[in-house]
C-alpha cells in the first residue's frame, strides 16, 4: 500500500472521528432561496424574495438579502442560529459565463497550468476582476477537452460575505447547468448521443447540453431580455423565442459533435404537457419531462437537488467547476487540517484529564496513608514494637516509590506533549500537514510522514527543525520526497528530540 492510499485511509478515519456535517444544496435566484439536504438527515426549506432584492443575478439590496438568508437559516436550525451550515451554492445563471475549450495533452501534471492560461485568454471579464474555474469534460491521446466558467469577482465576494454573515458556509459556487448534469446522470447512463435540458424558471429560459455525462454547453436568457419594454410576453413571442433558442442549441450540437440531440429533458413546472405538444410540432426530437424516481421532490427543487448531490461527493474528489474564492480542493485541505487539529486536541485533553484524575486519586490515597501511619507511629513505644516499626518503614518506602513513579510518568507525558506541539509550531509557517509520526521511545530517532504544498515548503520545514535547539541530526532523504497528482508534495523526515 503506497503513501497516497495510506493518506486516504487516514482522512477517512479523521472524517468519521470528527462527525463531519452533511452538505446541502442552496439555490439563489431572483425570486427565491431554496435549500435542500438529502441523505440520513433530509431537510428542505424555501423563501420567496421580495422583487428588487436580486435582479438578473445582481444584488440590489444586500441588507434585505442577508436578512432573507438569516430567516432561511433560522427556519432550518432555530435552536442553533449561529451554527454554520455547509452548502453548495447554485448561483443565478445570468451572472455565470461558460465556454468549452481544448488544451494539448501534455500530461496530468501540466493540465491545470494549461487550463489556467487558456482561461485567461478566453475570459469575457478582466482577469483581475473575475473568478475562473474549469473541469474536464473529455480527453483523447493528444488533447483534453475542458469546460470553463467565469463570474465577476466583486459579485461572488458579495454573495460569499452575505452567506457567511447569515451562517451559511459555502463549499462551492456553481450554476444550474452543472446541477442538471448530475440529475441527468442519475436517470441515464453516459452516452455519446447529446441530450438537451430545457428549463423554464421564474428567472428565464436555461438550455444545457449533456454528453458522456458532462456539461458541454449552457445558455441562459432572462425574461427581461425577451419582454423588452412590454409589460407582458405574448404567447406567440414566447413560442417564437423558445423555438429560436432551441434551434441555436441544436445547431451547436451539430457543429460541435455532428450529432443531433436525441432527447430533450423538460424542467418546466406546470407546463410539461404544453411544452411536449409544442416542441413535438416543431422538432423531430423526443421531449419528455425529467423525472427522478430516486428522489421524491418536484421539479421546482431540481437545481437545489443537483447541488445537494455534489455535497455528497468527497471533498478530495470534487473536481467540478467552483467559482468560490478558494477551490473545493483547497477548502478540503483546510477542512482536513482543522479536523486533524481538533481531533488531536481532544485526544490530548482527554488523556491529560485522565492523568490528572489518576494523579489526584493517588495523591489523596497516599496522603491518607501517611496520616494514618503518622498516627500509628505516635502510639508506638518501646522495643516491643521494633518489628512493627520496620514493617511500617517498608510500607512507607513502597508508598514513596509509588509517588515517584507517578511523578515520572507525568513528566514523560509532558515531554510527549511538548514534542507534538513543537512539530506543529515549526510546521505551521510552511503549511505542513502531518500524516504520521513513528517513534518507540522519546530519546530515539523519530520519523515523520507529512504533506506540503511545495518542495520549498519541505525545505523550509527541514531548516526550521535544523535551527531549533531541541532537534538534532535532522535527515530528509531526497528519495523520500514525492510529488502528488494535486501538485502537493509528500515526504518523510527523521530527527532526534533533545529537550529534557
Question: Could you walk me through the main structural features you see in this protein, from its secondary elements to its overall organization?
Answer:
The chain has 500 residues and is α+β, with helices and mostly antiparallel strands. The protein folds into two domains: 24-325, Nucleotidyltransferase, domain 5 (2-Layer Sandwich); 338-497, Gyrase A, domain 2 (2-Layer Sandwich), CATH 3.30.1360.100. It contains twelve helices and 20 strands. The chain has helices at 3-17, 62-76, 111-122, 153-165, 176-187, 223-227, 235-257, 272-282, 302-311, 328-379, 386-427, 455-467, and strands spanning 24-28, 32-37, 43-48, 54-55, 58-59, 85-90, 96-104, 130-139, 143-152, 168-174, 195-200, 204-211, 214-222, 263-267, 286-289, 433-438, 446-452, 471-475, 482-483, 489-497. The chain has a five-stranded mixed beta sheet. The chain has a five-stranded mixed beta sheet with strand order 13-12-11-14-15, sandwiched between helices. β4 and β5 (58-59) form a beta hairpin. The two termini are 37 Å apart.
Amino acid at each position: 500500500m503506497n503513501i497516497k492510499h495510506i493518506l486516504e485511509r487516514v482522512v477517512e478515519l479523521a472524517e468519521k472521528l470528527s462527525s463531519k456535517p452533511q452538505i446541502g444544496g442552496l439555490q439563489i435566484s431572483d425570486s427565491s432561496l431554496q435549500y435542500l439536504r438529502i441523505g440520513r438527515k433530509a431537510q428542505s426549506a424555501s423563501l420567496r424574495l421580495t422583487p428588487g432584492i436580486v435582479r438578473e443575478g445582481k444584488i440590489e439590496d444586500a441588507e434585505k438579502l442577508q436578512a432573507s438568508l438569516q430567516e432561511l437559516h433560522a427556519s432550518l436550525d432555530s435552536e442553533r442560529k449561529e451554527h454554520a451550515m455547509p452548502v453548495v451554492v447554485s448561483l443565478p445563471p445570468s451572472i455565470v459565463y461558460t465556454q468549452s475549450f481544448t488544451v494539448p495533452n501534455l500530461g496530468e501534471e501540466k493540465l491545470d497550468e494549461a487550463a489556467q492560461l487558456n482561461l485567461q485568454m478566453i475570459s469575457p471579464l478582466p482577469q483581475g476582476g473575475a473568478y475562473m474555474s474549469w473541469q474536464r469534460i473529455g480527453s483523447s491521446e493528444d488533447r483534453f477537452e475542458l469546460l470553463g466558467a467565469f463570474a465577476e469577482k466583486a459579485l461572488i465576494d458579495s454573495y460569499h460575505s452575505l452567506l457567511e454573515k447569515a451562517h451559511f458556509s459555502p463549499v462551492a459556487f456553481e450554476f444550474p447547468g452543472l446541477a442538471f448534469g448530475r440529475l441527468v446522470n442519475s436517470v441515464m447512463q453516459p452516452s455519446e448521443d447529446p441530450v438537451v435540458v430545457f428549463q423554464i424558471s421564474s428567472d428565464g429560459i436555461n438550455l444545457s447540453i449533456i454528453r458522456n455525462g458532462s456539461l458541454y454547453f449552457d445558455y441562459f436568457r432572462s425574461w427581461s431580455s425577451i419582454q423588452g419594454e412590454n409589460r407582458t410576453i405574448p404567447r406567440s413571442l414566447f413560442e417564437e423565442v423558445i423555438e429560436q433558442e432551441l434551434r441555436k442549441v441544436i445547431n451547436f450540437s451539430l457543429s460541435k459533435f455532428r450529432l443531433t440531440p436525441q432527447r430533450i429533458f423538460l424542467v418546466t413546472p406546470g407546463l410539461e404537457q404544453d411544452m411536449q405538444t409544442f416542441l413535438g410540432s416543431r422538432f423531430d426530437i423526443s421531449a419528455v419531462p425529467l423525472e427522478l424516481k430516486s428522489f421524491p421532490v418536484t421539479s421546482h427543487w431540481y437545481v437545489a437537488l443537483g447541488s445537494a448531490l455534489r455535497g455528497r461527493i468527497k471533498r478530495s474528489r470534487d473536481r467540478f467547476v467552483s467559482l468560490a474564492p478558494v477551490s473545493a480542493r483547497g477548502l478540503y485541505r483546510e477542512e482536513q487540517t482543522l479536523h486533524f487539529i481538533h481531533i488531536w486536541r481532544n485526544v490530548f485533553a482527554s488523556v491529560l484529564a485522565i492523568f490528572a484524575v489518576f494523579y489526584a486519586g493517588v495523591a489523596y490515597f497516599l496522603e491518607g496513608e501517611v496520616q494514618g501511619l503518622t498516627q500509628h507511629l505516635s502510639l508506638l513505644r518501646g522495643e516491643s514494637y521494633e518489628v512493627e516499626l520496620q514493617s511500617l518503614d517498608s510500607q512507607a518506602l513502597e508508598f514513596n516509590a509509588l509517588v515517584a513513579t507517578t511523578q515520572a510518568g507525568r513528566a514523560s507525558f509532558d515531554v510527549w506533549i511538548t514534542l507534538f506541539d513543537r512539530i506543529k509550531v515549526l510546521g505551521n509557517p510552511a503549511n505542513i500537514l502531518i500524516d504520521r509520526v513513528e517513534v518507540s521511545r522519546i530519546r530515539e530517532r523519530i520519523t515523520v510522514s507529512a504533506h506540503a504544498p511545495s518542495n520549498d515548503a519541505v525545505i523550509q520545514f527541514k531548516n526550521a527543525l535544523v535551527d531549533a535547539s531541541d532537534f538534532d541530526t535532522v535527515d530528509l532523504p531526497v528519495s523520500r520526497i514525492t510529488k502528488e497528482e494535486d501538485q502537493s508534495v509528500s515526504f518523510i523526515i527523521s530527527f532526534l528530540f533533545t529537550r529534557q
